[in-house]
TrEMBL record, chain A:
Swiss-Prot/TrEMBL cofactor(s): FAD; [2Fe-2S] cluster; Mo-molybdopterin; Mo-molybdopterin cytosine dinucleotide
Highest rank taxon of the organism: Bacteria
Signal peptide: none
Pfam families: Ald_Xan_dh_C (PF01315), MoCoBD_1 (PF02738), MoCoBD_2 (PF20256)
Upper lineage: Bacteria, Pseudomonadati, Pseudomonadota, Alphaproteobacteria, Hyphomicrobiales
Name used for this protein in its record: Xanthine dehydrogenase molybdopterin binding subunit
UniProt KW keywords: 2Fe-2S, Iron, Iron-sulfur, Metal-binding, Molybdenum, Oxidoreductase
Species this protein is from: Mesorhizobium denitrificans
EC numbers on record: 1.17.1.4
Keyword flag DNA repair: no
From TrEMBL, chain B:
Domain 2Fe-2S ferredoxin-type: 5-81
Official protein name in the record: (2Fe-2S)-binding protein
Keywords on record: 2Fe-2S, Iron, Iron-sulfur, Metal-binding, Oxidoreductase
GO molecular function: 2 iron, 2 sulfur cluster binding; metal ion binding; oxidoreductase activity
One family name in Pfam for this protein: Fer2
InterPro entries, per database record: 2Fe-2S-bd (IPR002888), 2Fe-2S-bd_dom_sf (IPR036884), 2Fe-2S_ferredoxin-like_sf (IPR036010), 2Fe-2S_ferredoxin-type (IPR001041), 2Fe2S_fd_BS (IPR006058), Beta-grasp_dom_sf (IPR012675), Diverse_Oxidoreductases (IPR051452)
Amino acid sequence: MTAHQPSVKATKIAGGVHTDQRHDSAHKHVTGEAIYIDDMPEPRGTLHGCLGLSTVAHGKMVKIDLAAVRTAPGVVDVLTAKDVPGVNDISPTGRHDEPVLAEGVVQFYGQPIFCVIAQTREQARRACKLAKIEYEELPFVVDIGGLDVEKDKLVTPNLTLTRGDAAEAIRKAPRRLKGQVRNGGQDHFYLEGQISMAVPGEDGDVTIYCSTQHPSEVQHMVGHALGVPSHAVTIEIRRMGGGFGGKETQGNQFAALAAIAAKKLGRAVKIRPDRDDDMTATGKRHDFLIDYEIGFDDEGNILGVEFTYGARCGFSSDLSGPVTDRALFHCDNAYFYPAVKAVSAPFYTNTVSNTAFRGFGGPQGMIGAERIIDEVAFATGKDPLEIRRKNFYGTTDRNVTPYHQTVEDNIIHRIFDELEQSADYDGRRREIRAFNNNSRFIKRGLAITPVKFGISFTATHYNQAGALVHVYTDGSVHLNHGGTEMGQGLNTKVAQVVAEEFQIDIDQVKITATTTGKVPNTSATAASSGADLNGMAAQDGARQIKARLIDFAAEKWNVEKDQVVFLPNRVRIGNQEIPFGELIKLAYFARIQLSAAGFYKTPKIHWDRAKGQGRPFYYYAYGAACAEVSVDVLTGEYMVERVDILHETGRSLNKALDLGQIEGAFIQGMGWLTTEELWWDAKGRLRTFAPSTYKIPLASDRPKIFNVTLADWSENRENTVYKSKAVGEPPFMLGMAVYHALTDAVASVADHKLHPQLDAPATPERVLMAIERLKAAR
Amino acid sequence: MAKKVPLQITLNGEERAEFVESGSTLLTALRDRFDDTSPKGGCNQGTCGACTVIIDGELRLACLTLAEMCDGASVQTTSGMAKGGVLHPLQRAFMEGFAAQCGFCTPGMIMAAKALLDRVPNPSRDEVIEALAGNICRCTGYEPIINAVLEAARANSHNAA
């Protein structure tokens, strides 16, 4: 890449903001040269770890016999809880409820108890099977059905949001109804599984190459478990093979164990669990059971709502507090509730501890909102589209959320109107009605659903970021920031921002692996915030250096500061132009500092959890999807015929990358609500722990017609990086359109008079059962 | 230690020989012995497609193929597709069409696509979808991948014409 000479005559740089710059690793992805952790050369003598997992859902370990494990071929060591030199805890929110290795008691089927370290991965795996552990089984809870937020164990304090007197509004409403909807969890199935490789260094230091979205947290957790200061632990990650939230906290365990073993044995240790173990022993999206009661009028205006959001959190808190909080923050989706009370119930269960997953509780929150819209539509005999539009937030009034934040940037009306037109909702509604009247066994369904998603970490302190920008004497730039690359193109976007600031071609900017040694105390690359936070931090770093260059040039050439202008690959100083690299060289000889640490913190946000009031979100991202499905009413099987999406990302930094996020998120959201079913047996054992039993959408499951449009008229009202908006999570919830289209198709068997009460995931089995229920009831 | 067996293969046109552990998979042999890390271990149980390679012209999952059964075979992987620094049309189409996000499924996808184009130079959209339906991509939603394969087929037929 060194051959390229930046053009000093260009009118525009290559790869600035608002261009379709391709992923910085694209050429390596397609040649297989992109290095993931398992592709790295292993240091000489690298050992391999495998975790021994519990085989009961809840029990006291009365006897642990690892003799056969220790003497198995190739085994070097077997770690148990007593080998943890520091604190046997990796609870990310400091609740001290998640051991690295279980001690005394196991709390879910698949909980790590010991870790075999052997010469080869195969030997470690085989040795694991030789353990003999006797349990005294204890009562266990797998499902949250029937649990009570007042009486049953919670993993973390719950949240209540109230605005107005919901109970009174419901009581006084002309019409009322109550119900319940369940939605399933979801396995991340990042293509690259969890992996950590720990390499011991001098003075007891350790470097861990860890597939993680949150290097700083891994650093802190490993330090905590090792009983060493954070400065003794370095975490590095160049790229992940997918994350989706599953590598926000779930890498901690593997990193901690690899580090403990590496330090104990003085050799590099790599742990890469089998896919079965990965799916069994790491957390997933929370499944929810949502109870609702609504008061409304004959026109379909919602007057009051009460929700209880019960979540299966698993045995520890992990991120269940903020996940269940975010569910409540999205119990409104895009709708104004005149009076509302929403309560979360983060239930303890004897299952793997559920964790972050794209949307982080938001999707589950919106399921409640969209369900009550459908209920009101069926009760009043109106098209759900009409009820949706009727209850949307206003722009100047009816614009206060259940958490008392005023929605200031509402564009859902325009999004919805444009999509309704471009997807020809009305025309197709008529066609589908006619089709269904003439088709006995295949029924079609149509739905259009909105998304309004709040952007910012609700833990306010997470909304900060750092970046490190170096300009070398040849004018090339080395950029590092706190975000992590998991495929979303974050590094590309941040490099675009820096290229734009300096006005240099993007190939003059190199982004390197994320490491805790370069940018400290970073936040997780999560909450869709990667480009918003790190882009701004990198911009700040670049601007600091630019300011120094401007001061230098103004003084040297004796011009006013505003006479120093950065043009593509060159700088105009007074009446002359010199190449960027030349100015840098001169600045270096004049001893100008050419390196800067950039920093950013999101303004305006605040949140008082005890009161349930504040402004947790800097802004909202909007979108809508229209889906059409056909259902075989004899089998419950279905096809997605057509999907139209209109989504906005403000003034997009990179439309091509954003479209990729939107399409991918939609398909993943559709998978969550249709075919991806996690299933636990009576013993609390997850039985869907591989793609053979857990059905992830394939190319053949895509909508037959798939029209995705970016609302290019949109611009962030807030002062975000080049007026762009976050994109990672919001489009995930566009998948709801498919779920509601299935509801619509099922409802046609009872002439849309009865609500089908279809739970998610709407597998063919559930669709068939809903059809049969309606047939019996009509 | 399992006994070692000799394995001679033609890997991307080059004759190679290594001793591999008897009973190990072709995926392990390629990655650990032949230093070709382009096939990825996604699930190691034949369900995700990340390890897809072409053996004697046939599409195969390296994680389910015993290494020693490939003795004498010709094995193609994504790392061998670019010739003299020039990308294969499929690689170019994937790169230019934003068909990789995290990139972990990409080498397997490209192999699945190559096996299709070797057999059917001008496939229909449905044939492409069918050919890719054994490979999971969790990032893209498949749209750009399907389009890239169709684009590569167009580029191929254009070059041939």
